[in-house]
Structure prediction request, 660 residues.
Amino acid sequence: MQTNEILSLKNVVKTYHLGETTVQALQGLDLSIKKGEFTALIGKSGSGKSTLLNLVGCIDSPDAGQILFEGKDITHLSEVEKSSLRNHKIGFIFQSFNLIPVLNVYENVELPLVIQTEVSAEERRNRVLSALKDVELEQFAHYPPDKLSGGQRQRVAIARALVTHPTLVLADEPTANLDSKTSHKIIDLLLDLNQKKSITFLFCSHDEKLIDRVGRIIHIQDGVITE
Amino acid sequence: MNLFSKMALRNLWKNKRRSFSTGIAILAGFTGLCLLGGYILRVEKYQRVSTVYNNHTGHLAIYKKGGLDGFYNNPRKYHLAADDLKKIEEIVTADPQVEFTAPILQGMGLLSNGNRSVPFLAYGITPAIEKRIQDHEQVRTWTHDLAPPPAEASIKDAVGDLSETISITKELGSLIGRKPPFQNLTTTEKDVQLAARTFDGDLNAVNANLGFKHSTGMMLSEDTSMVAPLGVLQSLYGTDGATYLAIYLNPKANIQAALKRIQGKIDAAGLDYQAYPFNDDRIGLFYAGTLGFLYIMAGFFIFLIFGAVALSIVNSMTIGILERVREIGTLRAIGFTNSQTAKLFTIESLYLTGISLFVGYILAEIMGVVINALNIRFEPPGVPGDMQFIVTPETWFSFLLAVPILIICLISAYVVANKLVNKPIIQLLQQSN
Prediction:
């Protein structure tokens, strides 16, 4: 194993059973991601890219194979250990932003830190303000999510993903609900954060127009990497 | 205020209609329980004061051992003679919780107006002590309905133990053709004779005058009850003693503790007397029976209302959680555990229940004041005449009711939330999308 490898998937299999139909989403997939890489998973709808992100993010479990995160096998962690890993090491950016509607921008970003008891109130405040500054939303801190544009909401979601200082950020179709111009801005922002903070990004998209500046592109089809 | 509390309160506000309907269910149930509790507390006070003071039982009644069952068959053996009364009084008056004592002589016989005779059950009391009883703050507060109208004289006005003026109920008076106010009767109409067997078994009779009226507060005994100065009955039964010594404690005293203490002193002195509390069903049957029935009824209502409150919370939580599947999935994805997510919903339930209980308590207090001001009168079963419907919600009792409701709500919310959030995250996120 290389020393700078943050993520390694070995012969990962995932099958879904939809009634009598069996869908093999991932068929013995192998993948390695290095620290600081900005990787795009490209594939058509149903190709298995979201399944791959879900398995890496510990929000789903593989049927077979091994997933190593920072050299540690995470496939057999308990639910509490998985929660802690997601909270401390992994940031999530969702296609539909998934902001909490009753919380304002500041509070949405603060949310993952609230359950980190080791982070003091002052440290929490500093981190939230810093994350909002990174996504250029300081002046919108007290806005409710429904008063923001789609691009602004996704930037709030990015700030929420970054506030815990994760080593890996997973983004599932982060631009699917945005127009073309805003989508490019979001990708630019993610790239900028990747370069400035050396955070590893793994994002999936079916829009090949967005990926011309991405460092590494992985094509996935029928649950197999075709790169 | 922390973020969990902000989320809880804002979600409650966001779903105003559902929060309101659930809150109203809790509030209505709690207000009803507070008022029911207030009514039962009022009845308990009424029955307690009626039994202890108006019916001369005292908080404790000290009999000669075996006297409670054996006195009427063998009064000579089981009565407390003057020496016995003196010994007991020496012991009990030393107790700091004893307010005063009263020797009570019970007996039965015939009351005659010269033409017609009817049976009576009499209490022989000391008029000076009776005055103290009827002027007692507890009696004036809780059983003022039983007091004779100001125009009618009461046995407390009798002059000394040897006064021949007795008190009877309105019903007993009507049986011998006399109507209250008895003090306004002519001298001839007032004249009555009391006949009975003495403690030695001889037939005896004494003269007496009608002059006072009282009520027992119990229909059962209303047509036989007589209260006479102790001296009149002692003369009738040929004794210088009493049936028992009634012990009146400080109203806030712990009765069981006082009973244990006084009985301990009696036993330590090697005396053959037995103390009974007023709520012992052998001497306070009406109190014990009435309260037993009310407690069972209250228990039934409490069970129903607790169940309704729990179901309201379960229903509200279930709908709330099903509406927020994406939010739950997101929280889990960013690192919240099942129990932390369930805690968020439980905090919502805590706020909703807490606010509802507080408003319910205020409402119960206001309704109590309004109901009491309306002076609603009714005739309770087993009680002669009408009485005011009074509810007296008390803070400590409301608190006692609120605690289990709060606990039920929190447990219901946590169990439902924990069950519903405990799904695979991928399923929660996919359901929303």
In short: The mean pLDDT of chain A is 90. Strands of chain A lie at 5-18, 21-34, 38-42, 64-69, 72-73, 90-93, 168-172, 200-205, 216-221, 224-225.
